[in-house]
Amino acid sequence: MRKFPLLLLLLFLATGISHAQDIERNVKERLTSYFNSYSPATAKTNATEFKSFNIDYDRKQIAIYLSESFAYQPFQNETVETIYQQIKDLLPGPVRFFDTTIYAGTKPIDDLIPNLYRKKKKDKSRLLLNTDYKGEPWVKNTSRPYEVSRGLQNRHIALWQSHGSYYKNDKEDWGWQRPRLFCTTEDLFTQSFILPYVIPMLENAGANVFTPRERDTQRNEVVVDNDTQSNSIYLEVKSRKADWSTAAGKGFAQKQSRYQDGENPFATGTARFARTEKKKDKAFAEWIPTIPATGAYAVYVSYQTLPNSVSDAKYLVFHKGGVTEFRINQQIGGGTWVYLGTFEFDKGNNDYGMVVLSNQSSQNGVVCADAVRFGGGMGNIVRGASVSGLPRYLEGARYSAQWSGMPYEVYGGRKGTNDYADDINTRANSINYLSGGSVYNPNQAGLGIPIEMSLALHSDAGSSKTDEIIGSLGIYTTDATNGQLATGIDRYASRDLADITLTQLQKDINANFNTPWTRRSMWDRNYSETRLPVVPSSIIELLSHQNFADMQYGHDPNFKFTVGRSIYKSILQFVSSQHGKDYVVQPLPVDHFAVRFGKKKNTLELSWQGVQDPLEPTAQPQAYVVYTRIGYGGFDNGTVVSKPSYTVKIEPGLVYSFKVTAVNRGGESFPSEILAAYKAKRERSRVLIINGFDRISAPAVVNTPTQAGFDMEQDPGVPYLYDISLCGEQTTFDRKQAGKEGKGSLGDSGRELEGLKMAGNTFDYPFVHGKALQAAGGYSFVSCSDEAVEAGIVSPDNYPIVDYILGLEKEEPGVRNSYKTFSSAMQRIITAYCQSGGRLLISGSYLGSDMSTSQGNREFTEKVLKYGFQRSMDDNRSKVINGLGRTLTIPRLPNEQTYPVTAPECIVPVAPAFSVFAYAPDNQSAGIAYKGNYRTFVLGFPFESIESEKERSTVMAAIMRFFDEK
What we know:
- The protein is an alpha+beta fold.
- α2 (77-90) links the parallel β2 (61-66) and β3.
- The relative contact order is 0.08.
- α5 (397-403) packs across α7, α8 runs antiparallel to α11 and α12 crosses α16 (949-964).
- The longest helix has 34 residues, at 3-36.
- The N and C termini lie far apart (134 Å).
């Protein structure tokens, strides 16, 4: 009888086990099917491998284990909730309501939601809530007329732009780290995002930004120092209480023009110091450079950090726009170059081009004076038997670190045998050395600069034969230093940084370009640039430089602005979330800018409109800054105004220029276009200058079933200000060669443009036209944007003469921004102006071809403006134009002075108009004039492209005489 209950028990257990096995078999089949077919909604990642699962029936829990690749996708609250709900729905009834945890690699997917996006409890193990820098910033511009309170003020960020030229030890030659493809190479390409866009945006938000590569594109360099005799001047002035003495430690001295491996210019000289005083104008040191050529120069100072250094050393930079004041925290950062800003300086030496260090301070201590550097310069580090021969900004970080006085172990870990590896490691080593001893890197010796994060921007390889976008990839490292960074926070903070950046990039590109931008994986990999930094760090592979579809976006300056703003916003969000702070996004640039003569004598009225950012509700303008330039000077430090208008008093006889930015608590926008105005002392007429040249664009695109690439000979594009990304013209367009590298591959390009800073659209052409009007004598002028005219803010009817600047304006198929020469609204306005007897000067390079696409457009140019389109002058061998008894020249090829006019147009007169200019040598019409009830003077080339200022003035005077004659 005892056996029967035992048999029942065994049968029950066997049935239970069998039932459990059935459940688990069912669960495995369903999970396998789900994850085999799983595809992230917003990212293109590697396939997921379903590894195993475990059911704990007693605790009613299920653990699901997946491959690390499942963690490559972004996780937000909604994503995680959806996945768990889908898993719950597919589980069989008996276990459907068990608590389920899904692991990607070793982490529950809930833990992979960045803190920024979490609705519930934050993961404090990867936040800096209890760690923050409380001291004075390394550098502060105290002349800035506004305060940033919800941006990146007092934050120190490290940022770099991938590779650079390096010495190839095995080949005993210098070269790029990546191939030349689609008119660029990665070493050049990523700089065109970081230098003109990302760094200025971060600095406009109040951040101190360090980059391991040289940031200044100025080829010239002048170093002024107490230890080096030169044609520049170093001067010391003592006070009654304070005199200058030599510091005990070593300082900078440039005792040679070139440096061998390991030689440190900051270890061969001396530094000077003086006691501080609280009153102004006491002891000071001056550095007066002899500038070799007028232009923009970065200003770097240096000093030694002494035991009683102060945190508010007062520096004054005298430049063409006035004086800008800085406070430098000399308690940190001693013994290296410290960037202040970039300023305009005149050639030679003078008392408005110098740097002054005062001993005025609110603290009792000393200020220290060492060398001051003006300009980025040329590479001066010898490897093998030569220097690179390139401007320093094109070299790798290894060589910049040496010139910046860093210890050999920072940049020379391979002892001079492998510059490639050393250059990669230098980027992170520089950050660690600079931040050593700070609150974010307390256990390493260094310069104490509180750098709290780093980000590297790269482009990647990979191609698609079907013109699919390869897109963006993020990289971070968690398996190093026991999974912790120097502050003790979890390395998964770096994953948060990568995720936030990729999420923002995809969102902004999709919204601004109406394209499904591809987001790729987030790799947890052992890369030096993410493993070595002791602060949260990430690599962003923005796009594939090997893929034509990606590069169509990559070369577009509008895309670069979007990417730059997106990276800036990502860093702002990440840093703010790390410290639990609210943030405000800096505004977009203003538009509808106009300058008119004021109601009161000798005044100007400026007006503009703030721009709303539909993607960022906090990016609202709260005030504006008006910057002023007089003549050929530089812009001043700006004046804050609360409304989108400003009245300024002017002195007759001087040309004034203005630009405007929008500001809020998050920082400052990029500037508007530059407008100019002038009141003649003896006015005989007034001119309205309309700036219609807004275009910025990539080089001409070739896109056929068999050919792909960029035709720089047809059109090298229009950069925003300048372009430093170009290596040379593309030579191979054959689509069959896609995916290859080297000679003959699709995109293979030359090297003839390497080191050229190609001039682009400076948005400063009303000044160029205005100076010619000033020279003509008696013509006052104001200027405005074409948007202000189209919106009715400015009426041409109020001006006897109108000068319409169209530069390289033209409409391009498939381009998001409209750059039509004459919009429908502008055609109506110009027609009405002419019918009322106006006198109109128009110049531009695409006035014919851009208006030949429809009958209506052709009728406007032929019947109203009195010209017809014959052809584009695509032979760039000739740059000579004859007319009005003058011989003019215009730039036809990329250069550093002014944008190239690759295809000026032959426009012919429509009777009774007549030709006034002709292209040499074939005498084709380059400009026409019409005299009737109204008058037009139309040039098939941009007026501002005339290379000689004297010739511009002569031509403008002749045009004004034509308009004035009876």
